[in-house]
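Good morning,

Both structures are done.
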Amino acid sequence: MRRPSNWRLLFCLSVALLLHNCALAQHFDIFIASRDDGHLSTVGGASIFAGTLPATHVDGQGGVHYWTTNPGFASFNPQFLPDGYDPLPPNSDLSFSILSFSIGGPQSANLWHWDGMDIGGEGMSVDDVEFTPVDSGTAFRVFRGPIHSQFLLSGIADGSDSDQPGFVIGPTSGGGGMHIHPGYEVFGSGATPPDQGVYLVSIGLRMENLEDSEPIYLLLRTNEVEQATADAARLWANDATFATELLAGDFNFDGVVNLADYTVWRDGLGGNYDLNDYQTWRENFGSTGASASPQAVIPARVPEPSSLVTLLVCGLFGGVTMTRWRSGVR
C-alpha cells in the first residue's frame, strides 16, 4: 500500500501557526492585580507597553484615523500571583485617566510624538529618539464600542499639559476576573492624517477601594514604522526618568533570578510565557536587584479566542487526516 502524503496536516498547522502569531502580535494583555499595600498595580511593576497602530482609515465624515484594540486589561491568574499581590476585588469597575508628564525637562504634555527618523543615517539607535508634544490637530483617545460612540468625548489626549478624565473600561466578575480590550486611536483634524511615527501616552488606572495605579506608558507605532524604530523607542523609554525598572527573568518578582523563576516559567509556558522568556531567564540567571540591566517590558502574550479556535479546528482536521492515513484510506 502506498503511503499517502501528509501535506494536509502540515499545511493546516502552518496556517494555524501563522494566524496564531498574527493574533499574538495584535492582541496582548496588561495584567493587573491588587498589591498588598492597597494599590491597583500591573503585576511586577511593569510600566512600559508597546503596540502597533494598523493602517489609517477614513470614516464617513472625512476624518483620518489610526486605531487598534491592543493592549487589553486582564486580571492576573490567582494561581500564579507572586507574593505581595492579591486578586482584584469582585464586581468592581476599572476606570482610567490620561496623565500629563514630563520627559527630563520642565515641559509636560499628555501626548508625545517621535517621527521615527534615523537622524545620523547610521542605523536606528536610542540616540535618534526625540519625543516632542504633538502639534495641534492630532489627538489620542481611548474608546469602547463603535468609533462614534458616546465615550469619544472623554479619554482624549491632545498634547496639552493637563490630565484628562476617562471612563469605566469595564467591571470585574463575581470572582474578580477581567479581560477586556478597549480601542485606542490617534486621529487627525478633519481630513488631515496623523503623522507617522511613535506616540507616547500615560494612563492611570482606578478601582474602587484601591489606591490609583502607578502610571502606565503606552508606545504606539504606526504600521509604516519599522520594528527597529519601535525597539529604539522601547530602549529609550526604559532609560527615561518615568520608567519603572523590572529585573529581567525575575518571573516571581522576588528580586533575584534563580530556579524558582524557572518553575514559574515552566508552569506558565504557552500562556503567560514563551521560549523567548526562557532565554531571558537563562541570560540573567543569578542577577539580583540593580545588577541586572534594565529592559523595556513587553506584556505576556496571550492567545485570543479566535486563534485558539483556529488551532482547535486545524487540530481536528489534522487528526482526521492522520486517522485516514492509518486506516489506509486515501
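Second structure follows.
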Amino acid sequence: MQALVIVAHGSHLNPDSSTPTYDHADAIRATGAFDEVREAFWKEEPSFREALRTVEAEEVYVVPLFVSEGYFTEQVIPREMRLEDWDVSDWDSEDGVSASSATYRASDVEKTIHYCGPVGTHEVMSDVIVRRAESVTGDPEVGAGFGLAIVGHGTERNENSAKAIHYHTERIREMGRFDEVEAVFMDEEPEVDDVTEFFSARDIVVVPLFIADGFHTQEDIPEDMGLTDDFREGYPVPGEVDGHRIWYAGAVGTESLMADVVLERAAEAGAEIGDARSRIEERSAPSVAGE
C-alpha cells in the first residue's frame, strides 16, 4: 500500500486558503493512484503533527504544497512529522530550487516516509503558470502579442522565495511563447505596482506564484496594479491600466493542473502512479472561450 500526504500552510483567517489543497487531493484521489490521500496543515486541522498517524499504508509520500524551499519545508514540516535524521542537504539543492526527495523513518510510526521537495520549485510548475495564462484568457494558444508577469511575494527573510520566481520566469522565457516574460514582486524590486512599465505588449497576463487566493492575491495585487481602487468592488478581466490590458489570473495554486505537479513529485520519489498524470492533464485542459 502507498499513501500520499499533501501538506500546506492553511489559515485561521482565510477560510478559502485550504480549498486548493482539498481540490488537488480530490483530483488525485479520483485517479486511484494511491490507496490513501490525506491533507495536512500548519494553521488548520488536520495538523502536520497528526497526519502520519491517520495513514494506514507503510509507504508514505509527503508533498509540500509550498512555493519555495525555506523555513516551512526545511524546518517546520520535518520537525512536526518527526522525520528521523532529517538533513536538508539530503535534498541536494545548493541553488535553492532543485530539491528532490529523501527517505526517512518517522520516530513514532512504523512507516517509510518519502519527503519530497515543494511543488513551487518543480520544473512542471512552469507549465502550470502557462496553463493559468490559457485559463484566464480562454485561449489555449495564448502567447504571441502577450506579455507574462509572474508575481512573487519577495522577502528578505527567505531569498529562495525570489529564486523560485526567477527560475520559472527564465524557463518560460526560453520557451519563446510569450513576447515578454518578467518577474515582479510585492515587497522588493521590480514591484508589481509598476507592472505596465516593464512591458511593451498591450496585453499582459499576470500570474501570482501563490498557492491560494487570499489577502495578497485578491486585495493587495489588484489594487497595487490599478485594476481597482477598492477590491470589494471587484475588478474586470481584462482590465485597462496605463494603456495595457491586464489579464489577472489570481493564484497559480488554484489551477487544476497543480495536481499534476504533486503527482510528479511523488513519482520522482518512487510512487507508482500509473496513468494518473495523463488523467489529471485531460481533466484540467482549459476550455476555449465561446465553446
